[in-house]
Each structure stands twice: as C-alpha cells, then as structure tokens.
Amino acid sequence: MKRRREMEKQCSSELRSTIDELSLLAVMKLKHHRHLHHHNDPVITDDLPNDTHIPTRPFLSVCNFLLHLLDKIGPTMAVLRQDIHRNILRLEKMQELDPVLYSNVVEILKKEASEGTSRKMSSCSKAFVWLTRSLDFTSTLLDLIGKDLGVNIEQAVQEAYETTLKPWHGWISSTAYRVALKLVPDNKTLIGILMSETVDQETLKEELKSFTSLLASFLNELHTILETYKLHKVKAT
User: Fold this and answer.
1) Is the backbone of residue 230 left (phi > 0), alpha (psi -120 to 50) or beta?
2) Of 67, 61, 53, 66, which Cα lies nearest the Cα of 102?
3) Is 80 a residue whose pLDDT tops 90?
4) What is the Cα Rg of the chain in Å?
5) Of 64, 87, 207, 212, which has fewest CB within 10 angstroms of its CB?
6) Secondary-structure percent of the chain, ordered helix, strand, coil, rounded to 5
7) What are 104's strand-pairing partners?
C-alpha cells in the first residue's frame, strides 16, 4: 500500500514536471524564432523555414513521461511501452554521435532524408513518427479523462487508440493492442495513479487540461514536420 502511494505521488509530480517541460519548450522555440528573425538568417531548406526547431532532449523527456505512466499502469501495456522505449533509445544514440548538430530532431530527419534511409525499419525518422503518434494517443486519452474523471477507462483507451494509432497499424500490431486494451486498469486505479495524496480531483483536471493543451500545440508542429518529410503515412505491420 505504501509503495502504491509513493508511485501515485511520483506520477503526479511527473505530470507537473512534464507540464513545466512543455512550457519551457514553448519558450525555447519562441526565443529561437526571435533570434533567427533578429539576425535575418536565410532560409536553409526548400521545405522548412529555418526556425523549425524541435529540441531533442526536451522532446524525449516528454516521451519519457508516457514511459513512466505505462510503468505505473503495469505490464498490460507492455507492447506500447517496448515500442516507445526502443524509439527513445534510437534517437538518443543518434544524438550522441553529434550532440550539438543533433540537438535538433529536424537535423536527424534531414540527414536520413538526404541518405534515403528515412523509411528503413531501424531509422530515427520512423522512431520519430511512432513517438509522435504515441504522444497523440496520450494526449487524446488524458483529454478524455480530464473532461470526465469518471469515464470508463477501457472505453477511453479504446477511443484514443482507434483515433490515433489504429489507422497506422497492420494486422499484427492491431491484434497485439486489442489484447492489451482488454487488460487496462479500472477507473479508480488509473485516477489513483495520476493523483497524489495532496492533489484533489479539480486540481488534477486543471493539470490534465494544461498538459493536453500544451501537448496539442506541440503535436501540431510535429505533424507539420512529418508531412514535410513525407512520413505522415508510414504504417506498421
């Protein structure tokens, strides 16, 4: 019981930390945009304006929040957790090759596009695609929960999956997820995971609203990048 309370409190603090991370991302991008316009830098690609900047570490930090949330939920979402973890590691390893250049995810996508490796199974571009879609799933799910803390969790997870991940899944992936969706925790358990002892339900709803609002804005930009690099229709098996 004590361990469960500690895990719940940790997850709540992680939610607040991720809200802070998303807020910081917005500020960083605004400063980056102003800096480039102040110096009147030329456009450096035919497809994207030169102020397109997705900081790699903060992006992966937001993805790690989902990883931690799935850890708290337990082994039922192991398939999704494994995918996310593998994709995070792939981008981390690429950044380590050139920490300065690849501090911007877009530079990684440019590299693979120029080499013609974007659509390879092990590419960082595909990792970026699936991490973005996993964040779509998270945003939709937490938005549904935030609007109604009494929502049926299995139905909410199903709705989030149907609208974000399922359109891109083949038969194998869909089957694996269909099994996992039947094993998600009940409403009381998941709300308990999202809350700490010191947070009431109204505060949780406010935090979920802040999180999903900030994340939705960030996701709009991520999807624009996916379309630019023609990665938005990539499918799984």
Assistant:
1) left
2) 53
3) no
4) 18
5) 64
6) 75, 0, 25
7) 55
State the pLDDT at residue 46. 44
Q: What angle do CA 69, 89, 180 make, to 5 degrees?
A: 40
Q: No. of H helices and E strands in the chain?
A: 9, 0
Rounded CA gap, 226 and 231, in Å? 5
For 8, 127, 145, 157, the CA distances from 162, given in Å and listed in that order, are 27, 20, 16, 8
User: Is the pLDDT assigned to residue 213 strictly greater than 80?
Assistant: yes
Q: Are 151 and 191 in contact (CB under 8 A)?
A: no
Q: Quick one: angle between helices 124-147 and 56-73, nearest 10?
A: 60
pLDDT tens digits, residue range 13-55? 888 889 999 998 888 766 655 555 444 544 334 454 455 789 9
Neighbouring CB atoms inside 10 A of 29's CB total 18
Neighbours of 93 (CB within 10 A): 12
Chain mean pLDDT for the chain: 85
Of residues 6 and 213, more confidence is placed in 213
pTM of the model: 0.86
How far is it, in rounded angstroms, from Cα 11 to Cα 8?
Answer: 5
